[in-house]
Amino acid sequence: VDGITIVTGGTHSRDLSWVQYNTIDEWGYIDLPFSNKKPSEGIFSCAYNDKATVYVGGDYANDKRADSTAVYWQSDGSHIGGPAHLSKIPPAGFQSCVEYIKDETFLSTGTPGSHLTTDSGKTWVKIDDTSYNVCRKAKHGNLVLLAGNGGKIGILKP
To answer: How far apart are CA 74 and CA 95, in angstroms?
Structure first.
């Protein structure tokens, strides 16, 4: 995907959280069904493959709250696509980062633990209870690292 994607968190004038994107020559936005009534709520990260985009977030002030923690959006072949949907089985609480791994697999992480989806964000499975802030896959190869408070490092093993 060419362009820039900007996700928003916290309270703002729109009824829903939203993502703004630039596809080389035009800006647009997509409404996302995330709660955004408090400054601590909203979208905090997104990742995509050629068929879907996955957004994660939630409420970092109430990090065990599991509703409105993940949304998936599937491309219809255009840059606009169809509507975004809340995950049918969401991550178990606030997620601060999501990373595309391969095929339809994405990894998300946050204070209540890390989760995997193998269906582009429709359903998530908790894989670890450790609190991490970020996750990133190596540009080449299969190494996936997670990092958290106090210099904590994790490695996702396939």
So the answer is: 20
- What pTM value is reported for the model? 0.86
Task: Report the 10 Å Cβ neighbour count for 10.
Answer: 13
- Cβ atoms within 10 Å, residue 137: 18
Token pair of 5 as six digits: 């994607």
The three-class DSSP label of residue 5 is strand
What would the two tokens of residue 110 be?
């946050």
Both tokens of 33, joined, read 């069904």
Find the range with the poorest average confidence among 22-36, 46-60, 142-156: 22-36
Structure tokens at 145: 């690292």
> In a 10 Å sphere around its CB, with 0-12 CB exposed, 13-18 middle and 19+ buried, how is residue 53 labelled?
buried
Rounded CA separation 158/150 (Å) = 25
Rounded CA-CA distance 28/24 in Å is 11
The pLDDT, as a whole number, for residue 26 is 67
Taking 3-state DSSP, the helix, strand and coil percentages for the chain, each rounded to the nearest 5, stand at 5, 50, 50
Q: Are 153 and 145 in contact (CB under 8 A)?
A: yes
Q: How far is CA 30 from CA 4, 94, 105, 117, 125, in A?
A: 13, 21, 23, 22, 26
Give the gyration radius of the chain's Cα atoms.
15
